Amino acid sequence: MPKIVDAEARRQEVVHAVFRIIASDGLERASLREVADEAGLAVGSVRHYFASSDELLAFSFGAVIDRIAGRLEAALGAVEAEPPGSQEQHVAVLNLLGQFLPLDEELAVDACVWMAFRHAARIKPVLAAEAERSHRTVAAVVGRLIMALNPGESAQEGLVTEAERLLATLDGLCMHSLLQPEWMTAEMCSDVLAAHLRSLEASPVSR
Amino acid sequence: MPKIVDAEARRQEVVHAVFRIIASDGLERASLREVADEAGLAVGSVRHYFASSDELLAFSFGAVIDRIAGRLEAALGAVEAEPPGSQEQHVAVLNLLGQFLPLDEELAVDACVWMAFRHAARIKPVLAAEAERSHRTVAAVVGRLIMALNPGESAQEGLVTEAERLLATLDGLCMHSLLQPEWMTAEMCSDVLAAHLRSLEASPVSR
DNA sequence: TTGTTTTTAGCACGAACGTGCTTCCACAGC
DNA sequence: GCTGTGGAAGCACGTTCGTGCTAAAAACAA
């Protein structure tokens, strides 16, 4: 048997190098040479684990989706475990929504990478499948959140609209936090989220 | 005097070539050679009007900002000309908000280009100044819209929060329309905007 | 020790990029 | 006519990119 290396761990190290490069220098700088440098490897070594640049990027996209989805699922479980309308549920909801925003270093890197890949997927067909999965996964989480906030509501159409509205607001907040951090501060994000939740409570779906 | 050409018109032609390339192939494909091809010119000719690639991109960013700002200002004027709370004002507001979304070919191109440049500005310092101007301009329009919808309201803080919330929702809708057009249809955009306006009316800023 | 196989490293090629620089061309002014 | 200037085109250089390919190094079974 040859030299044994935890291949999966190596792949994750390379993927994290991709994350760091995208967060600091953008997706277009995430070339094989740059990634290899950042990971402390040679280009040939990176290509041993990823057949091509496209495969590396697609895998990295999937990895960041899994990270985000994992956080969201955990936070959503906490929301659904609390009684509807309670103060505890409100806190859990704010925590869930906060997972979308670049509130700390790790969240910021993931948000950068996530946004970069989603926008790149508009052009690069290799990323389209993961972009689809990303949207489906996150939309499902937000949909379940809206259902948890409107218990007993059966008007499907209105719930879907409210879910899309919340999702759009979250993506917009995330975008502004990344692109205009001096305007969209953490306090402003918090205020906007609070206002949105207030509007959800004030005017329930059923009209 | 040498051969006389309307220099400003030529620059606009080149800029429109940039727009088409960004909308169809992304910003990273907007190289001097691609732009020159799309405009039916040689690289040297493009460089006669724009000293460098950076200058071409920065100028194109400014051009798309001016286009969008022009549409928004016109639509905002129509809103402010109608009596608050009237049906006519409601229609004017919907028209203004629709200017943010890729509802036709021209709006779609501008939205693509706008998003691409804003995201690129996070990394490319040459675009930072225009990104600032873009944000200030659009935020001012949305702010005036919120003021028009809350006449006589003096609570500055709440108004700013509502403006940022509307802006985030609009950017999120625009993003989703560009990235997931099969999910975020024009009808869904319309529904979400209608729901947002309803929430604005139902729970005014003053608590 | 030897042999096998994974891992790591590196070379070389073609393509695309920005850019400095030079070269033609057309036409207004003399 | 001639001349000079602005417009258009293109060459050439260095850099970066992905990728096919080769080869050394390393680690374990025999």
CATH class of the largest domain in chain A: Mainly Alpha
Helical percent range of chain A?
Answer: over 70%
CATH architectural designation of the largest domain in chain A: Orthogonal Bundle
Q: What oligomeric assembly is this protein in? A: homodimer
Q: What sort of overall outline of chain A do the alpha carbons produce when their principal axes are compared? A: elongated
Q: Could you state the order of secondary-structure elements of chain A as H and E?
A: HHHHHHHHH
Q: What radius of gyration of chain A results from the CA coordinates?
A: 19 Å
Beta percentage of chain A is under 5%
- For the secondary structure, the number of strands of chain A is 0
Give the biggest sheet of chain A: none
Number of helices of chain A: 9
> Which fold name is given in CATH as the topology of the largest domain in chain A?
Tetracycline Repressor, domain 2
What is the terminal-to-terminal distance of chain A? 69 Å
Kindly report the name of the CATH homologous superfamily of the largest domain in chain A. Answer: Tetracycline Repressor, domain 2
Structural class of chain A: mainly alpha
Mean pLDDT of chain A: 94
Number of domains as seen in the coordinates of chain A: 2
The chain pair with the largest interface is: A-B, 44 and 44 residues
